[in-house]
């Protein structure tokens, strides 16, 4: 049988289309049915790359007896959390309130009005792990609905009131000062793992926003400990199994503290943020290893995560053939058969043994420096690296013939904005036209595909279907970030103009006028039990933090003070939290460092050939507090930073400004370098 998911485009929902469960997508039909029949709603939220979602689906949702219970007593609704972050946010708040923790799959029981009254995450088919079975949960909830209806309604009301209060914060500071930044570094230092890098204990997640902040703090204050923590973490992650040593790209997180054993799924947003922070680390330190990791990650995305029309896919699953990690691990025998004479060297370099380093298999990681093995073997470093590169390619070719992990090939506007920014910045820094083309192609795809007839932004698209769902704050903010990076790569004014349109929409339709900052949903969004306003950064920046950050950049490019004032107010509202909990507010810290730093705007006037030497100066090194515009100058009123900036003596001319107060224009590269100084 098929259920009501057959017309959906989400790969996650389509994974459940043949379940015996009578699944419905979230919408008026399902909610109306629950009200008509006065049945509770069983809401199941997950995503395509979620391992435990697959486990619960196989154990329970594919089981006929379980499906009978679900269909008899509940209206069953399945939601892809990546398509509907609003529902995910609202009901995750309820789950954590009721259970003390959260995760996916998320299992929430609701009244027909959408109010939660019981919840959990993964429930096993049979009682184990100290948990009741899913069928026991179903029976118990159905009994409570039938026989304790008033008590259920009372509990639902209490939980709903709690959820509605979750956006309230009391962390306002009257003014931002650098003590916030130094306190954040001190907190990160206390949690820093000096043996393996990263912060906190296993499971360990990459924290690119926090690492970015540490790089900025080193640049701002000269704090060498900040740089050391950032570098050591970047090094250890890229040496570990969390990094795909054969194909490039990072997995979601490491289950151990050594970065060896990943939870093998690969998410677009992780790789966008990590490619960018490795790029910045290379710009800041000159260490070629960071550049290599950034390029390998972006090359992986181009090869395996991009639709031919220009959109970037969402994720690759952890599982293949029903086994977690099977696609990525190796036996020593396989390595010897494939690599022959180079196998021994490769096995030393990548920690391969007959016994394996994980459940009898080998996860490849860099266990020793390549230069040491080359020296021990009497092989020149260049020859050694060439042979290892050849070995990696041979293994990649063999691996490509395996059964691939499942691909979530939907395109999400927000995540694409993050990846667009990474490709655009890498194109600038590395002079890679293929990266510029990838970023431009992505912007053109999103402009053509992710806009409704009335011009509003949409959330999600999959080949063979139309884009759908009104975009959220994070879609507007992340895409604005990508477009600003792309504008500063190509100086094509249409990307600046679109970025400004998106920012103006955020200001018009998302603001929290009473408390500052922004709601996650538009003012004309579907009416839910709560209008969410997420402030904390998680795996991706909060929409609020990114909105603040891009408004600051737009203010520098446009001279519009309202952008800056709105962003600064929002950032002040998070001031205390940033200092105390930097791991949860990394993007806010980066916005705060821009507010308090010596930001610069650079206007370059002249044709492409004339400004090229000046642009090389601007793009040299790590300059996170600088924005740049380029064009014809006086005639170019569409970019305010360029308006009324004449060329000097027919030469390429640079204007270095701070909040639109500019120094004397220069045409000489040394003079420009002197004016820029340190950002």
Description:
The protein has 679 residues and is an alpha+beta fold. The chain folds into four domains: 11-164, 3-Layer(aba) Sandwich (Glutaredoxin), CATH 3.40.30.10; 180-320 and 408-596, Glycosyltransferase (Alpha/alpha barrel); 328-401, no CATH class; 600-676. The protein has a five-stranded mixed beta sheet with strand order 1-3-2-4-5, with helices on both faces. Strands 17-16-18-19 form a four-stranded mixed beta sheet, sandwiched between helices. Strand 14 and strand 15 (468-470) form a beta hairpin. Helix 9 (208-221) packs parallel to helix 11 (268-285), helix 17 (413-430) packs antiparallel against helix 18 and helix 21 (543-558) packs antiparallel against helix 22 (561-572). The longest helix has 19 residues, at 381-399. 53% of the residues are buried.
């Amino acid at each position: 049988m098929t259920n009501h998911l057959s017309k959906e485009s989400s790969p996650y929902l389509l994974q459940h289309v043949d379940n015996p469960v009578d699944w419905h997508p979230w919408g008026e039909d399902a909610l109306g049915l629950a009200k008509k029949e006065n049945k509770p709603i069983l809401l199941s939220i997950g995503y395509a790359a979620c391992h435990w979602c697959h486990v619960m689906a196989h154990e329970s949702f594919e089981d006929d007896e379980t499906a009978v219970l679900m269909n008899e007593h509940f209206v069953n609704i399945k939601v892809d959390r990546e398509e509907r972050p609003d529902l995910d946010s609202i009901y995750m708040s309820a789950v954590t309130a009721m259970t003390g923790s959260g995760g996916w799959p998320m299992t929430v029981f609701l009244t027909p009005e959408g109010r939660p009254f019981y919840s959990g995450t993964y429930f096993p088919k049979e009682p184990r792990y100290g948990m009741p079975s899913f069928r026991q949960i179903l029976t118990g909830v159905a009994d409570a609905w039938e026989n304790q209806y008033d008590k259920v309604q009372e509990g639902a009301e209490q939980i709903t009131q709690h959820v509605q209060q979750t956006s309230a914060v009391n962390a306002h500071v009257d003014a931002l000062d650098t003590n916030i930044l130094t306190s954040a570094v001190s907190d990160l230092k206390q949690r820093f793992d000096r043996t393996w890098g990263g912060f906190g204990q296993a499971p360990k997640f990459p924290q690119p926003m926090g690492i970015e902040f540490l790089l900025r703090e080193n640049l701002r204050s000269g704090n060498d400990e900040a740089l050391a923590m950032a570098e050591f973490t970047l090094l250890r992650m890229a040496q570990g199994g969390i990094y795909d040593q054969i194909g490039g790209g990072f997995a979601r997180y490491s289950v151990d503290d050594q970065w060896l054993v990943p939870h093998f799924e690969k998410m677009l947003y992780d790789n966008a943020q990590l490619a960018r922070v490795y790029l910045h680390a290379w710009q800041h330190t000159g260490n070629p290893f960071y550049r290599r990791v950034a390029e390998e990650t972006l090359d992986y995305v181009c090869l395996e995560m991009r639709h031919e029309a220009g959109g970037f896919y969402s994720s690759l699953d952890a599982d293949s053939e029903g086994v977690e990690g099977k696609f990525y691990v190796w036996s020593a025998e396989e390595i010897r058969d494939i690599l022959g004479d180079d196998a021994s060297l490769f096995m030393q370099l990548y920690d391969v043994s007959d016994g394996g380093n994980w459940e009898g298999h080998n996860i490849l990681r860099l266990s020793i420096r390549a230069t040491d093995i080359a020296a021990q073997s009497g092989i020149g470093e260049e020859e050694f690296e060439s042979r290892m590169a050849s070995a990696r390619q041979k293994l990649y070719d063999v691996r490509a013939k395996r059964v691939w992990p499942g691909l979530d090939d939907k395109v999400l506007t927000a995540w694409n904005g993050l990846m667009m920014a990474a490709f655009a910045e890498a194109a600038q820094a590395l002079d890679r036209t293929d990266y510029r083309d990838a970023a431009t192609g992505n912007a053109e795809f999103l402009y053509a595909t992710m806009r409704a007839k009335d011009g509003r932004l949409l959330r999600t698209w999959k080949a063979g279907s139309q884009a759908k769902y009104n975009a959220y704050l994070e879609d507007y903010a992340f895409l604005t970030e990508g477009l600003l990076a792309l504008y500063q790569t190509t100086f094509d004014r249409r990307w600046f103009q679109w970025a400004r349109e998106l920012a103006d929409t955020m200001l018009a339709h998302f603001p929290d006028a009473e408390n500052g900052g922004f709601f996650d949903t538009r003012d004309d969004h579907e009416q839910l039990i709560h209008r969410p306003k997420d402030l904390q950064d998680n795996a991706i920046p909060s929409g609020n933090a990114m909105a603040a950050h891009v408004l600051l950049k737009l203010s520098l490019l446009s001279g519009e003070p309202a952008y800056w004032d709105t962003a600064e107010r929002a950032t002040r509202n998070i001031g205390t939290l940033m200092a105390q909990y930097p791991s949860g507010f990394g993007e806010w810290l980066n916005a705060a460092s821009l507010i308090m730093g010596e930001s610069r705007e650079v206007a370059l006037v002249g044709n492409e050939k004339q400004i090229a030497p000046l642009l090389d100066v601007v793009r040299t090194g790590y300059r996170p507090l600088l924005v740049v515009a380029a064009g014809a100058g006086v005639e170019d009123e569409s970019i305010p930073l360029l308006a009324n900036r004449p060329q000097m003596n027919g030469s390429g001319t640079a204007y270095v400004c701070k909040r639109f107060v500019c120094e004397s224009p220069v045409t000489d590269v040394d003079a420009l370098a002197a004016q820029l100084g340190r950002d």
